[in-house]
Amino acid sequence: MFHDKVVLITGASSGIGAACAVAFAKSSASLTLVGRNSDNLNKVAKQCEKLNQLQPLTIVADITLETDLERITEETVNRYGKIDVLINNAGVNSISPTITPAEAFDTVMTTNLRGTYLLTSKITPYLAKTKGNIVNISSILSNKPLPMMTPYCMSKAALDMFTKCTALQLSPKGVRVNAVNPGPVKTELFRRGGMSDVDCERMFLGIEMNSPLKKITKGEDVAELVTFLASDRASCINGSCYVIDCGLLLGDASNL
Ligand SMILES: NC(=O)c1ccc[n+]([C@@H]2O[C@H](COP(=O)([O-])OP(=O)(O)OC[C@H]3O[C@@H](n4cnc5c(N)ncnc54)[C@H](OP(=O)(O)O)[C@@H]3O)[C@@H](O)[C@H]2O)c1
């Protein structure tokens, strides 16, 4: 499905981004994989190469640094000569029972929003040439307040609006922009955001029990939706934010 297409994925070294990398590799995409942890990035790249015999370009980079954003763009274009799809997936969380300290607030915003915004603006001219598309990895928390994760919720609400504004702005160039809004997925996100292993276990158990489908969305499920939106099969989908959460946002019918 992505034969001869160049797909750039940020945060490809872990969780949902790694699952997306594997899914695109299965569909024969040429990949640029971006992350900070080179060991993890190389592991994912090897997994992808086994699937389609195409060696991904790996770029160890921090999307909060403008010089790194420049490098991501240049190295991808130098290697492939074009970019067809941008998956803005890299993101962080910060979990705090009180008001989040300024430093953690800034980290969430500079990663989830500023880095994503600036990388998108650098990649857009190349997407215009290929009439490509962008998929932003947002969250159901863009629309569901959770006080322990206020900056994260704020960042994802802004990412949804970024998706819609950019879709409108880039439509004349033939570039589509969409978002995927997953419910909780078992990745490193919550532990890295400050949650203990025990609390993570308890949270996912509770979510599973309360989920209408009695299950939790997996990275592979999200990747399935992402690859669909990035494909030509979704050529009429633009500026949309797709929830994928096993029905969690619907709430518990037994409470009615
Ligand atoms: N897990 C969930 O429940 C869930 C639900 C909804 C949405 N999401 C969203 O899904 C996306 C992926 O998260 P995940 O759950 O897969 O978490 P994860 O396992 O912690 O992965 C996060 C990825 O983002 C990368 N990253 C973070 N900061 C970065 C930076 N400054 N520069 C470059 N890369 C950076 C990490 O790279 P390194 O590891 O190499 O540092 C890692 O590859 C995030 O946008 C998150 O908000 C997650």
Automatic annotation (TrEMBL):
The keyword Isomerase does not apply. It comes from the Eukaryota. Keywords: Oxidoreductase. InterPro entries: NAD(P)-bd_dom_sf, Sc_DH/Rdtase_CS, SDR_fam. Transmembrane segments: none annotated. GO terms for molecular function: oxidoreductase activity. This is Uncharacterized protein LOC113494784. The lineage of its organism: Eukaryota, Metazoa, Ecdysozoa, Arthropoda, Hexapoda.
